[in-house]
C-alpha cells in the first residue's frame, strides 16, 4: 500500500516520515498521473496560495477533484484543509482555487499570523477510542485556519475555545455547545466526512502518530464501503452538486 503526499511545498517530508514509522510507503506527488499509483492522499500544511499556484501550473486540480469524487481517502492538514473545503474566506487578494468536497466553511489564517502560532491540548475522544493512548493530543497550530461552519454530514473530531478577538458564525458547533450548557464558543479544528479527513493543525510535527494511523484505517474502511456500494452512491454525501466557492470576502494582506 502506497499513500501519496502532495509534494509541491510545505511539510510533505514530515508526513512521509510519519507514514514510514507506521510501516507505510509515502510517495511524493507532483504530477496528475502519479495519483494513479496511490490508494490515498495527504495534502500537507504550507502556504496555501503558493501551493494552489503550483497545483494550477502542474494542472493538478482536475485530477485532485476526481481523486476525491471517486471516493479515495484524502487528508488535508492546515493548508490542505483549506484546499478540501467547499467554501473559504479570508483569502489574499485574488483568492485561490480549491479542490472542494468537504462541506464546510474555512477561514484562512483564522488564528493569526506566523508570530501567533501556538500549541494547544485538544480533546480527541473519537481518535483515542479507536487508536488508544491519552484522551488529548498536543496540536501544533502554525498560521492556522479555522472551520467556521460544517454541514450535516460532517463529523467534528476536535475543537478549541475561540480566541477572544474572533467570532464564528452560528452553526452546529456553536449550537452544540449551547445545548450542553456551555457558554464558551468554540471553533472546529478537525473533521471527517466520508473519505475526507481534515485538521487545522500539524500532527506530522509531533511524535504522536495516532492521526496518521486513524487515516490509514480510513483506507480500509473506504475500500470496504466501495466494495458494497457503487461509486456514485459512495460520493452522494460529498455535496458536489455545486462547484466550490472561491469568491467570498477577501482578506487584504497588510
TrEMBL record:
EC number(s) per entry: 3.5.1.2
PROSITE patterns registered for this protein in UniProt: GATASE_TYPE_1, PDXT_SNO_1, PDXT_SNO_2
Binding annotation for L-glutamine: 46-48, 108, 142-143
UniProt keywords, alphabetically: Glutamine amidotransferase, Hydrolase, Lyase
Keyword Transport among record annotations: no
Catalytic activity: L-glutamine + H2O = L-glutamate + NH4(+)
The keyword Lyase is assigned to this record: yes
One MF annotation (Gene Ontology) recorded for this entry: lyase activity
Catalytic residues, chain numbering: 78 (nucleophile), 202 (charge relay system), 204 (charge relay system)
Region named Disordered: 162-183
NCBIfam families in UniProt: PLP_synth_Pdx2 (TIGR03800)
Membership in a protein family: Belongs to the glutaminase PdxT/SNO family.
Name under which the protein is recorded: glutaminase
UniProt source species: Forsythia ovata
Amino acid at each position: 500500500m502506497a499513500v501519496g503526499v502532495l509534494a509541491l511545498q510545505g511539510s510533505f517530508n514530515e508526513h512521509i516520515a510519519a507514514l514510514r514509522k507506521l510501516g507505510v510507503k509515502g510517495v511524493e506527488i507532483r504530477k496528475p498521473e502519479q495519483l494513479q499509483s496511490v490508494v490515498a492522499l495527504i495534502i500537507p500544511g504550507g502556504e496555501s496560495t503558493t501551493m494552489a499556484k503550483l497545483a494550477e501550473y502542474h494542472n493538478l486540480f482536475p485530477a485532485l477533484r476526481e481523486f476525491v469524487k471517486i471516493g479515495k481517502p484524502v487528508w488535508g492538514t492546515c493548508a490542505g484543509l483549506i484546499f478540501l473545503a467547499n467554501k473559504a474566506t479570508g483569502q489574499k487578494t485574488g483568492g485561490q482555487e480549491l479542490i472542494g468536497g468537504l462541506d464546510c466553511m474555512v477561514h484562512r489564517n483564522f488564528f493569526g499570523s506566523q508570530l501567533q502560532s501556538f500549541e494547544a491540548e485538544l480533546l480527541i475522544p473519537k481518535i483515542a477510542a479507536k487508536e488508544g493512548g491519552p484522551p488529548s493530543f498536543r496540536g501544533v497550530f502554525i498560521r492556522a485556519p479555522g472551520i467556521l461552519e460544517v454541514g450535516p454530514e460532517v463529523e467534528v473530531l476536535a475543537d478549541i475555545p475561540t480566541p477572544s478577538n474572533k467570532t464564528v458564525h452560528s452553526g452546529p458547533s456553536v449550537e452544540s455547545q449551547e445545548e450542553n450548557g456551555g457558554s464558551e464558543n468554540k471553533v472546529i479544528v478537525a473533521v471527517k466526512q466520508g473519505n475526507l479527513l481534515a485538521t487545522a493543525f500539524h500532527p506530522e510535527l509531533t511524535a504522536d502518530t495516532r492521526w496518521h494511523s486513524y487515516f490509514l484505517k480510513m483506507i480500509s474502511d473506504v475500500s470496504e464501503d466501495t466494495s458494497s456500494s457503487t461509486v456514485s452512491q459512495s460520493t452522494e454525501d460529498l455535496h458536489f452538486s455545486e462547484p466550490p466557492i472561491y469568491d467570498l470576502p477577501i482578506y487584504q494582506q497588510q
